[in-house]
Amino acid sequence: MKKRYTAMIAAMTLMYLLAGCGEKSDSAKETTAEANGTEAVKSEASEVNEATEELGELTKDNEKEAKLLHAKIISDSKYGSVDNGEYSVNYNTTTAGVTLNDEEAEEYPLLAKALNDEFEENKRMSEKDFEDLRDSAASILEYGGSGDYMQLIAENRASVVRADETVLSYLIDYTDFYGGAHGNYASLGRSFDTKTGKKLSIYDVISDKETFSKALEAELTKRYADDGGLIENNTPAQVVESFFEYISSEDSSDSVSWTIGYDRLNIYFNPYSIASYAFGEADISLMFSEYPGVVKNIYTDNASDSYAVKIKGYDGYLADINNSGEYVNVTANYGTYDEFCYENLDIVLTDDNGQITTKSCDAHYFDFYTYYVKIGYRHYLHIFASSENDFTGNYIYEITGGDIKDCGYYGVRPAIFSYEYTEDGDIWMNSETTAAYSDPAKLQLSVRLDALSTYNAWRYYSINALGIPESDELYRITADYITPKLKKGITAAIADSNGKKTGEKIDVPAGTVLHFYMTDGESFVVFSLDDGRYISVDFDSSDWPYMVEGEPMDEVLEDYVFAG
Question: In whole angstroms, what is the distance from residue 167 CA to residue 330 CA?
Answer without folding.
Answer: 25
